[in-house]
Design a protein that fits this description.
Helix content is 50%, strand content 5%.
C-alpha cells in the first residue's frame, strides 16, 4: 500500500463489531496511525429476526444505545459512524456500491471475534476487500490472550478442556512482555481520559457530508425508537463513559467481592458483563483499572475476581476451539440425553411460577430487569435440567432472549456447566437443592421478597419452603418434588452415558 502521507485524501474505515468504544481500541488506533486520523466507523446490525417472538430486544436496545453513544463520541472528534441493517457481507457490498465514483477506503480495520459465525463473516469480508484492492487489517481487542496462543505444554496441538490447567497456562502468557505492555497502554489511556486530556483526534472523510450518511443516522435513530416501543425494562446507561463509571463504582466493593459475590440481595458483583459483551469495556481495561494480576492470596477478593475474568476467556477459548458446542453438548456421552421436555413445566419455569421461591425470584428478576445474579443463574439452570429434566438448550435460548448481557460463549459455557454436559462441568451427581441454596445465599429472604412479593409476610425461617397455607392463593405449590426428581435425574444421566458407549 502506498504511504498514506503521500495520499492526502486516503482514508480508512473501521468496522466496529464487539469493540464499541474509542479508548484503547487497537484496530481503530491502527487505522488512525495509517491515515493520520482520517477514519470513519461502520457497524453492521443483523436485524433479520426483528419480528420474531424470540428476538432479544433488551440486549439489542442496549447495543443500539451504545452505538448511539459511540457515534456521538466519534462525531465530537470529527468522524462518524455508518449504520447498516444488514449482514457484514451485504452491508459492505452496499457501501462499496454507493462509493462507486468516489474514493474507496484504502483499508478497513476491525478487531477479531471468535464465534463461528463471526469468523465466517470476517473471512468473507477479507476476501471481498482483497478483490477490490482494499487492505484488510485485524487486531486483537475483545480477549487479552487469544485462543490460538494457548495449548497444552505436553502437546502443542491439544487445547485445554479443564479450567485450572488453562488458567495456569493463561497466567504464564499474561506475564509475558507483550501482554503486560498492552495492559500498561490501557492504563496510560485510562489515566489520560481521567485527567481530561484529549484522546487522539479524528478527521472524518468527505463521506460525512454524503446523503447516505444522513440516511444511515436516521436508520439508527429509527431502529432505537422501534426497539424502545418493545422494551419495558429499565436499561443501564450505555456506552464507554458509563462503563468507566461502573468500574469506578465497583472499586468500592472489590475488596469484599469474595464474601459478597454469591449473595443476590446485595450489590456484590461488578455488573460489567453487558459492557464487556459489546466491547464498550475490555478485560485489560478492568485489569489496568484495579492493577490485577499481582501475587494475591488465593482466597483474596482480588484473586477471586481476577479468576472470573479468566473464566470469561476460557469459555471463549472453548467456543473457538470446539465450535460444535454452540449446538450440542461438549461431552459426547450426553448428546443422546432423553430429556422429558415438558412444555407446560418450561412455561412455569420461564414465568417464575415453579413454587420454589429462589428459582422464581431469579426468573422474575430476569423478566423484570433483563439481568440475573450469577449465583441464581446456576440455581435456576440446575433446576431446569436436573429437577424438571428439560434440555439445557431451551434455557440457554431463553436467557439469550432476555438478558441484556447475553453473551453466546459465556451463556453456553454456564448452561453446560450447570447441566454437567460441558467442559470442566459440575459433576452430574451434584444436584442443587433449591431450598438449601436459598437458605445459604439468601438467608433473610430479602432477594425472594423483592421479586416474589406474595411471600413478603413470611419470616426468614419459613420463606424458603413455605407450606400450603403460607403460600396463600397467589403463590403456587411446588411444581415437582425435588427429592423425587433427584433419582430420576441421576438415572437419566447414567442411561445417557451407557447409550453413548
Amino acid at each position: 500500500m502506498e504511504k498514506p502521507n503521500s495520499l492526502k485524501d486516503a482514508y480508512g474505515l473501521h468496522w466496529f463489531c464487539r469493540d464499541l468504544r474509542i479508548l484503547g481500541n487497537a484496530g481503530l488506533e491502527w487505522n488512525h496511525r495509517e491515515f493520520h486520523g482520517r477514519v470513519l466507523g461502520i457497524y453492521c446490525w443483523q436485524n433479520a429476526e426483528s419480528s420474531s417472538e424470540g428476538y432479544p430486544a433488551n440486549q439489542n436496545l442496549f447495543l443500539l444505545e451504545t452505538l448511539a453513544a459511540l457515534k456521538s463520541e466519534l462525531e465530537q472528534r470529527g468522524s462518524g459512524l455508518l449504520f447498516f441493517e444488514a449482514s457484514p457481507s451485504d452491508a459492505f457490498k452496499q457501501l462499496l456500491q454507493k462509493l462507486e465514483g468516489r474514493r474507496l477506503p484504502a483499508a478497513i480495520s476491525w478487531n477479531r471475534c471468535y464465534e463461528p459465525s463471526a469468523l465466517r463473516d470476517e473471512e468473507a469480508i477479507r476476501e471481498l476487500l482483497t478483490a477490490r484492492g482494499i487492505v484488510p487489517h485485524s487486531e486483537r481487542d475483545q480477549l487479552l490472550i487469544e485462543p490460538h496462543e494457548i495449548f497444552k505444554e505436553s502437546n502443542k496441538r491439544q487445547p485445554y478442556q479443564v479450567y485450572t490447567p488453562f488458567r495456569k497456562q493463561w497466567m504464564k502468557a499474561f506475564q509475558t512482555g507483550d501482554v503486560t505492555e498492552r495492559v500498561a497502554r490501557q492504563k496510560k489511556a485510562l489515566r489520560r481520559r481521567a485527567s481530561a486530556q484529549a484522546d487522539f483526534g479524528l478527521t472524518g472523510p468527505e463521506l460525512l457530508t454524503a446523503p447516505f450518511y444522513e440516511a444511515s443516522s436516521q436508520r439508527l435513530a429509527n431502529a432505537i425508537e422501534k426497539l424502545r416501543a418493545r422494551v419495558s425494562i429499565t436499561l443501564p446507561s450505555a456506552g464507554h463513559k458509563s462503563a468507566l463509571l461502573q468500574v469506578k463504582a465497583f472499586a468500592k466493593s472489590l475488596d469484599a467481592y469474595h464474601e459478597q459475590r454469591d449473595i443476590p440481595s446485595i450489590g456484590g458483583t461488578s455488573r460489567f458483563s453487558a459492557y464487556l459483551n459489546n466491547g464498550s469495556l475490555t478485560i485489560d481495561q478492568v485489569i489496568a483499572s484495579y492493577d490485577l494480576g499481582a501475587a494475591e492470596e488465593a482466597d483474596s477478593a482480588r484473586h477471586k475476581f481476577f479468576g472470573e475474568l479468566i473464566w470469561r476467556e476460557f469459555y471463549y477459548y472453548i467456543l473457538s476451539r470446539f465450535p460444535y458446542v454452540e449446538l450440542e453438548s461438549f461431552n459426547s456421552r450426553y448428546r443422546s440425553m432423553r430429556w422429558d421436555n415438558r412444555e407446560d413445566w418450561f412455561t412455569r419455569w420461564k414465568e417464575g411460577q415453579t413454587g420454589y421461591p429462589i428459582v422464581d425470584a431469579g426468573m422474575r428478576e430476569l423478566l423484570e430487569t433483563g439481568w440475573m445474579h450469577n449465583r441464581v443463574r446456576m440455581i435456576v439452570a440446575s433446576f431446569l435440567c436436573k429437577d424438571l429434566l428439560i434440555d439445557w438448550r431451551w434455557g440457554e435460548k431463553h436467557f439469550l432472549e432476555h438478558l441484556i448481557d447475553g453473551d453466546p460463549a459465556l451463556n453456553n459455557g454456564g448452561w453446560q456447566w450447570a447441566a454437567s454436559t460441558g467442559c470442566d462441568p459440575q459433576p452430574y451427581f451434584r444436584i442443587f437443592n433449591p431450598e438449601l441454596q436459598s437458605q445459604k445465599f439468601d438467608p433473610e429472604g430479602l432477594y425472594i421478597k423483592r421479586f416474589v412479593p406474595e411471600l413478603m409476610h413470611l419470616s426468614p425461617k419459613r420463606i424458603h419452603a413455605p407450606d400450603k397455607k403460607e403460600r396463600g392463593s397467589r403463590y403456587p405449590l411446588p411444581l415437582v418434588d425435588h427429592a423425587a426428581q433427584k433419582p430420576k435425574a441421576l438415572a437419566l444421566y447414567k442411561s445417557s452415558g451407557t447409550l453413548a458407549k
